[in-house]
Structures are given as structure tokens and as C-alpha cells.
Design brief:
- The protein is α/β, with parallel strands linked by helices and about 625 residues long.
- The chain is built from 19 helices and 27 strands.
- The two termini are about 25 Å apart.
- About 45% of the residues are buried.
- About 5% of the residues have low confidence.
């Protein structure tokens, strides 16, 4: 069996970028410690230490958008990192920026580089937020993509990189002539009868809709189609450049990218990344968002949506968010904080173990985003702290020894609908509502998978389909849901359903009130979790609080139940009830902690449970 990939951040921002950062002191800002820290980061001593922890993939500085000519000196340092890392069987991915262009330097290399930039409505280059010295890239610029391919060629051919970490891989709004022309092409190919959809007879003079303020709902058919066009175009261009990497290396190079997904609904609309349109040439997607662990007792937020979408759309997730150490609330200046607290790294055994375990049990790419970061003290790094080093090493070693346990297949009765048209139409809340539903299901330890509209036809009487707040529904989706209910699939329509079609046209009263025979209509404020449980043929019940779980099957058909604590409660005893699983009669327990388990009368009792445990249940 192939060894699992274990990743680590290894300094993706070059010092010349950090010098221009105008934010408050943070992990991304350049301080007096930076040069010493960066020198050590590239040293053999440090890379060897990464190998001792168990890391075998790192991503490091390569191309930030200043231009190949300007950045070649920094790239030479990356060449040396590659040489040393390969000595310890560590693969190196080069950081490559896909959203911004630093015009102050790249114009010296190419005076026509402005042709790569996205444009505002007045035709001026679009800045990257308040970083006035950075332009956003236009995804319809052939010049931009040709340049990125030159960057890729240099990284693979000259530096020996093993792949790339493509950052900010999303498509910002652009109003240039190329984007207008391509959007009109898309409309002509997509809408055969424009009079019926928009009341005009052709798209020859259509302009790109304004994007001035966040919208709660989108009823304008042109705006809806523009959003879908951007998502499809973004996916098309990303897949082309990812395919270029794969084809150039006989599929050996690794492709990792960060589209800032899934964040909130407004970011979903703004960034135009949608995994539903992703191609087949991506290995890993970064979950860079605010879904780090929050356990408020009655409500637990985790990264589960990211992991589940990765499983559905064929990529592994690597998480860059973490539950931060609490800052000292003293009002003191920056220099009076401890470096570790100021950077907000996890500092307890539980928080470190939780972060690594979450990736492990939910099928992500296990690794660490903070172990090699600076402690703002010369060349000091977080990995120098014994608790950090030893905890990482302990969990990673366990994972490598038991890798087969975490390669199981999903076996969930519950399918949650991921519906692109509805997420676009409900611009201000669609993705947020889906996240809330998914986290609630996960908190209740009801195991689920995502399904897309084209998969509904495969659902039968062994499945439960949850359709959350589907406000925008086309006729074919409604027909597919009704057909699934007729086949015996238990359909739960949660919240709104079929209020508008996917062009924003409201349904008439008769259509809205027409019920799907056999479907359960449940309001958001109702106890819909109990409704789901009543529909499941078999399920696992975990009465103990502050635990989430995942259910899989191994190659032999045995059940794999992964348990994860969301709160540091020390050692505790946990009871698990197996409903409608009387054939299960034997268990095996796996953990990197000293926990024990027994199965009797369809009840599993764990003694001394702390952070995580995996149960193989045989029957």
C-alpha cells in the first residue's frame, strides 16, 4: 500500500512580499526575526527534523506574482530546499499565485502586463482589496495563462518541483472586453430562446451585470447566468492549467490549490469557485475558512462540510484553519505578548491532537500548518517546543501504521442535496444555510454524504434524501425528487421548496402548493433531526456530548466507526448504541491513546476515551 501523504507549511510568502504588508503584526507580517527564521527554514537541520516528525510533503515559496525575472533569486533558494528535501524523501510543492499581479515589478519585465489584469467597469485595473500595488488577474486573458505556464515550466524543469500549491485559485469579477465577449458566447450557447428567459431577442449588446453590493436573493436571470458562467469558466481554466501540470509530468506531479472555499455565501458568489464544476486534475484543495473547531455545548462547528465535499467531488482536503490559543486579555502592546499566543497557535495537547485527528478520520490530507512557523524569536520555530514536536510525531506515526483504517468507503443512508442553482440564487444565505444544516446533522452524529441533482435517480428505498431550503428549483429536479419518493426513497424537504425556477421566475400558487406524494415537509424551526432519525433503517446513537463521528466500511465490509472529541474533557467513559445492527458481535479498537472497549447487547462501552478512537465492528 502506498504510504500516506503528510504535509507541512514551509514558508510560502517571500520576504519581499511581506515587507509590503500593511496589516498589524501577525504571522504574515515581516519582523526582525524573519531573515534568521527563513534561513533556518531552508536548512538541512530543519528539513531533517520535518522528516523525523513524519512529514513527506512541504509547500514553500516559489512564485508570488512579481514576475519570473524579479523572483528568480528567491527561486534559487527554493532549488536548494528541493535538493535537501529529496535527500529525505520529502516532496516539495512550489507556491504559485493565481489571482494577483504585482505590477510595480512585472511591468519592468513586460510593459504589456496590464493585459493580464482584470478590469473594473471604468476600464481601470482591478486592485486586490486595499493592496493598491496588486492587480487582480483576468481569467479570460490568454496572456496571463501563457505566463503561468512559463512559471510552471520553470518550476518543473529548472527547480525539480514535485508539484504546485496554487493560491487564490478563483475568478474575481472582470468587465474587460474579453470577458464581455466570452459571456455573450456563453449566453448564446446556453439560452436558445432568449425571449422566453429575458424578454430580448439576442445577446449581442448585453453587458456584464454590476457587482456593487452583496445580494440576498438573485431574481435577475442575466445575473444568475453570469454567476453560473463565472463558476464554469473558473473551473475550466483551472482544470486546463492543472491538466498542463499533469500531462507535463506523466501524472506524477501533485496539484494543490486554495480557492478560499467553503467560506460564506457572499464569498461563494464573489470568488466563483464551485466544486460541482471541478475537473479531474486536482489532488488536494485547501479549506481556508473560519470553520475551525468551536464547541459551545449545544452547537459545534467543525470542518465537516469541506471534507464531505472533497469526498463527493474527488479531492482530498487539507485544512489551514485551526482552533487558536486564547490571547492574553491584558491590553498590552505586541512586544508584551508571548510569541506563541500572539500567533494564536494551538498550544495544548488536545488542540494539536484534535487538528490532526480531524483530517485523519474524515479522509483529508493530514498535516500541519503551524509547526514550521516562526515564534518571532530569531530562528525559533513552533517545532522546537517539545509538546508540539512529540504530539505531531505520535499522531502521525499512528496514522501511518493504521492507514488502511482511514481509506474506507462511505456507507451512509442519508444524502444531503448539494444544488448549485439554489446556492447561486440564494446569494446572501444559500451556502450559510447548507453549512448550518450540515453541522447540525454532524452534531447529532447522523452520518451523511452529499449528492448532486444528477445522482437522485440512483436513490432507492435504502436511502434518505434531505433537500435543504431549495428555493430555486427547475422542473427536472422536482420530477427527479418525486420519482425518488415513488421508488421508496424517504424524501425530507426542509424549509422552502420550489418557490422559483432557476431563472428567478416565481412559481404560481398552484405549483408551489402542490405536494410531492410521500415526501415529508419540515420547517427549519421544527425538530427535523428526529424526522431524519425516524427515516433511517439503522444508525449509531452516541448520547455523550462533545463527540462527532464518521461511519465507513472497510474492504471486507466491516463497519468502521471513527470517534472524535470536540472538547478537552480528559479521560471519560462513552456509551454507543447500535440500532438495528443485531448481527454485529465483535469489535477491534484503535487509538494513539490508552482507551479500551467492549461490545455487549448492541452497546459499545469505551473506557478512558480522550481525543479519538476508531472501532472496527464485525458481524
Amino acid at each position: 500500500m502506498k504510504a500516506p501523504e503528510i504535509w507541512a507549511y514551509w514558508g510560502h510568502e517571500p520576504s519581499y512580499h511581506l515587507k509590503r504588508m500593511h496589516s498589524a503584526p501577525s504571522v504574515f507580517a515581516l519582523g526582525e526575526w524573519a531573515d534568521e527564521w527563513l534561513d533556518r527554514l531552508r536548512s538541512e537541520e530543519c528539513i531533517r527534523k520535518a522528516s523525523e516528525v513524519g512529514i513527506n510533503i512541504i509547500f514553500t515559496s516559489f512564485y508570488k506574482g512579481f514576475g519570473l525575472s524579479y523572483e528568480k533569486a528567491e527561486m534559487e533558494k527554493t532549488r536548494e530546499v528541493v535538493r535537501i528535501a529529496h535527500k529525505y524523501n520529502i516532496k516539495v510543492l512550489g507556491y504559485c499565485q493565481l489571482e494577483t499581479i504585482y505590477y510595480e515589478t512585472i511591468l519592468g519585465e513586460d510593459p504589456q502586463a496590464i493585459d493580464m489584469a482584470a478590469k473594473l467597469r471604468d476600464g481601470s485595473p482591478a486592485p486586490w482589496f486595499d493592496s493598491y500595488y496588486r492587480w487582480r488577474a483576468c481569467y479570460n486573458s490568454d496572456k496571463f495563462w501563457d505566463y503561468i505556464k512559463k512559471v510552471i515550466d520553470y518550476g518543473l524543469d529548472e527547480l525539480g518541483l514535485d508539484g504546485f500549491h496554487f493560491d487564490n485559485s478563483y475568478m474575481s469579477p472582470c468587465y474587460c472586453d474579453n470577458c464581455k465577449k466570452d459571456f455573450r458566447r456563453y449566453l448564446r450557447e446556453t439560452i436558445k430562446h432568449p425571449e422566453e428567459v429575458m424578454g430580448i431577442n439576442n445577446f449581442d449588446h448585453v453587458e456584464i451585470p454590476f457587482f456593487d453590493k452583496p445580494l440576498q436573493m438573485i431574481y435577475d436571470p442575466l445575473y444568475l447566468l453570469w454567476q453560473k458562467y463565472r463558476q464554469e469558466k473558473c473551473a475550466q481554466m483551472l482544470d486546463q492549467v492543472f491538466a498542463y501540470v499533469k500531462e507535463k509530468t506523466d501524472n506524477k506531479a501533485l496539484v494543490l490549490h486554495n480557492p478560499g472555499f467553503p467560506r460564506n455565501s457572499s464569498a461563494y458568489i464573489d470568488k466563483a469557485f464551485n466544486p460541482d464544476f471541478s475537473g479531474t486534475h486536482c489532488d488536494y484543495v485547501m479549506a481556508e475558512n473560519d470553520d475551525n473547531l468551536v464547541d459551545n455545548g449545544d452547537k459545534i462547528t467543525t470542518q465537516i462540510m469541506s471534507y464531505k465535499l472533497g469526498k463527493r467531488f474527488g479531492y482530498k482536503v487539507f485544512e489551514s484553519s485551526w482552533r487558536a490559543a486564547k490571547e492574553k486579555n491584558t491590553g498590552a502592546d505586541f512586544d508584551d505578548y508571548t510569541a506563541l499566543n500572539m500567533s494564536k497557535y494551538p498550544v495544548t495537547y488536545f488542540d494539536i491532537a484534535y487538528y490532526l485527528s480531524q483530517s485523519m478520520i474524515f479522509g483529508g490530507l493530514i498535516g500541519t500548518t503551524w509547526l514550521a512557523r516562526s515564534t518571532h524569536n530569531g530562528g525559533g520555530m513552533v517545532m522546537d517546543i517539545p509538546l508540539q514536536f512529540e504530539t505531531h510525531k505520535k499522531v502521525i506515526s499512528y496514522f501511518k501504521q493504521n492507514y488502511a483504517l482511514y481509506r474506507g468507503k462511505e456507507c451512509n443512508q442519508l444524502k444531503v442535496l448539494y444544488h448549485t442553482d439554489n446556492l447561486i440564487g440564494q446569494a446572501g444565505k444559500g451556502l450559510d444555510t447548507l453549512k448550518e444544516v450540515v453541522n447540525t446533522v454532524h452534531n447529532a452524529n447522523i452520518h451523511f454524504s452529499f449528492a448532486t441533482p444528477d445522482e437522485i435517480s440512483a436513490l432507492g428505498d435504502e436511502h434518505v434524501l434531505l433537500v435543504p431550503d431549495a428555493y430555486f428549483v427547475n422542473d427536472s429536479l422536482r420530477e427527479d425528487v418525486e420519482a425518488a419518493a415513488q421508488r421508496g426513497c424517504r424524501v425530507i424537504l426542509l424549509g422552502a421548496f420550489n418557490i422559483c425556477n432557476t431563472y428567478g421566475k416565481g412559481r404560481d400558487i398552484k405549483t408551489r402548493q402542490e405536494k410531492i406524494p410521500g415526501a415529508l415537509y419540515v420547517k427549519m424551526q421544527d425538530d427535523w433531526i428526529s424526522t431524519i432519525r425516524s427515516c433511517l433503517q439503522r444508525y449509531v446513537e452516541i448520547p455523550a456530548p462533545n463527540i462527532v463521528s464518521e461511519l465507513m466500511k472497510d474492504e471486507e465490509g466491516n463497519i468502521l466507526l471513527h470517534l472524535l472529541s470536540t472538547k478537552d474533557l480528559g479521560e471519560r467513559d462513552v456509551e454507543i448504541k447500535l440500532h438495528e445492527m443485531s448481527e454485529m458481535n465483535d469489535i477491534e479498537l484503535y487509538s494513539f491513546e490508552p482507551v479500551t472497549a467492549e461490545l455487549r447487547d448492541n452497546i459499545i462501552r469505551l473506557n478512558g476515551f480522550q481525543t479519538m478512537a476508531t472501532l472496527r465492528i464485525r458481524g
